């Protein structure tokens, strides 16, 4: 049986209103669980942010669904509303430590099948590096960060310093879009998630390439972008053409954009077999990992089916994407993979 590792899933621990209010009574996120215990709502202060259900906070419910879906191992990370980037760095640091410790407590209830990626107070590079190392040594398999910090993209010197620290410490990094670009025009139909979110991810990748940031970050960095890298694969040709034709695009980027594809990975959450075929053609089967965005409605509902049922992928390619690549990326011991279920 082919190993299946879902490396992009989310969680939200049972944070109480009182805990959140101690940080920010108007905006801090907390979890309101309905009386039946199966449904709930992520709250932002007194505002309902997103309806959710039990698998988001209950490891037992998550394991049941993983069994039903045929998932051997799942890596869970913070729901981005938990990042806390808007707060004072010291407060965000304490929040990250608390959430990371809770993540490990949830994982401990599921044995080797449930693993976690930590969050960090990215607004302070020293604190972010300290917590990334602490969490990694405590049992987290890597870190998840947002794709930008206010107006600063991933090529910002502070964020490059954090990525360099992770490279030197051997800490894998998942970049997840958040706080999507919009000037108010995308008001309905979840357009920020459908239009701006893929653009945010492409912006992150291209900013690292064209700024020359990849020249400053050690090649040892294990870096992955969520949601198939957003719109990057489809628009790489446009970026490559611009680099070839315009000196202002080449100014800080010494090599063709296509030459940087071996510097990062993407997940498989693209939902369409044609899109997955393009993604594998562009990135290579060695650079795509199964990711679902579970347990949210915009995630893949039958985790792994897009890959497993794809008629244009070989058995070897499917095995890499479904689990082999993630096992290497997160340095998972063979025995964990073999005895997961």
From TrEMBL:
The enzyme's E.C. designation: 4.1.1.45
Enzyme class at the top of the EC tree: lyase
Residue ranges occupied by any Amidohydrolase-related domain in the UniProt entry: 5-332
GO biological process, one term: secondary metabolic process
Cellular component terms per the entry's GO annotation: cytosol
GO molecular function: aminocarboxymuconate-semialdehyde decarboxylase activity; hydrolase activity; metal ion binding
Keywords attached to this entry: Decarboxylase, Hydrolase, Lyase, Metal-binding, Zinc
Pathway: Secondary metabolite metabolism; quinolate metabolism
PANTHER family for this protein: 2-AMINO-3-CARBOXYLMUCONATE-6-SEMIALDEHYDE DECARBOXYLASE, 2-AMINO-3-CARBOXYMUCONATE-6-SEMIALDEHYDE DECARBOXYLASE
Family as reported in the entry's similarity comment: Belongs to the metallo-dependent hydrolases superfamily. ACMSD family.
Binding partners and assembly: Monomer.
Protein name according to UniProt: 2-amino-3-carboxymuconate-6-semialdehyde decarboxylase
Organism: Trinickia dinghuensis
